[in-house]
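Many introductory courses stop at the sequence. We go one step further.
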Amino acid sequence: MATSLETRPQTDPGFGARYSTFMSRHSSLMPTFAAVVILVVLLIGAQVQFGNFLTPGNMSALLLDNAYLVVLAVGMTFVILTGGIDLSVGSVMAFTGILLASLLAQGVPAIIAIPAVLLGGAAIGLLIGVLVQYFNVQPFIASLAGLFLARGLAFVVSLSSIRVEEPAVLWLQRTRFSVGDFYITPTGIIALLVVALAVYVLHWTRFGRTVYAIGGGEQSARLMGLAVARTKILVYVISGVCGGLAGLLLTAYSGAGYPRNGIGTELDAIAAVVIGGTLLTGGTGYVIGSLIGVLVYGTIKKIISFMGAEQSWTQIIIGILLLLFIVVQRVIVARSARQRR
């Protein structure tokens, strides 16, 4: 007697089921995808409106003009991923920039002055990290103290602008490496290298996995035996170093150090990170998203400039985008909470 296996036809789960499955598996990527979509819409809309927006010169200048902000956003991403915040980065950038200009004006070689200002930024970051970890000071208050400290130190160094004449520093901005009609400067290359290094550290090292684990739940990370204290301090040190490096890039960009540089820039960096999809509660986010967030910010500024409108509109538009992305983040957090039940 012959038998045959009966096969049941497989039913298509349908678009709705496939969409729900994709969202549940990749919900953390949704804000970053949204940022990419917004960037593409802005670029296409500006090209349609102005006709000469998507030129090689404009697109190359987008990275050149915002290289320092990319570096700040990378450092801020590390901090926010742990559930913290760093309000000091704009002031650290100003302090390290004016300190660099002052050291160079006094004849200190660039090979000594540049590491010195990076160490200065790291020291302020270390101070904030110690306050947060060992004195249980809220990150907002600890980094606010760092903000006032760095800004005060900047005014101690000089009350006025100091021009930079060092060829090695000016070379970072004035040199152009061309690919067809596009170009990139050493400042842009440094910014992209910082992004690439951060991606590697966060996604392929134990330190990076610990950063995400702390943001997901600090107590759980401790129970897993992870180096929570060391990691929390190091993320603020990284942010401080990025602030120092941003000071170098901004000084090269402007050709001078100025103690009032960077006022409010910490908010720009936070906005870029949030727009790029990093949750303010920590544990979810991507450095590439922060880069996209900076490009969105820079594109909006350039569109406002093309329109001849007041730059205050940049802040208004960024504020609207922040509200939108915060709502999106809350939806993602609520969805994740329901799935864990």
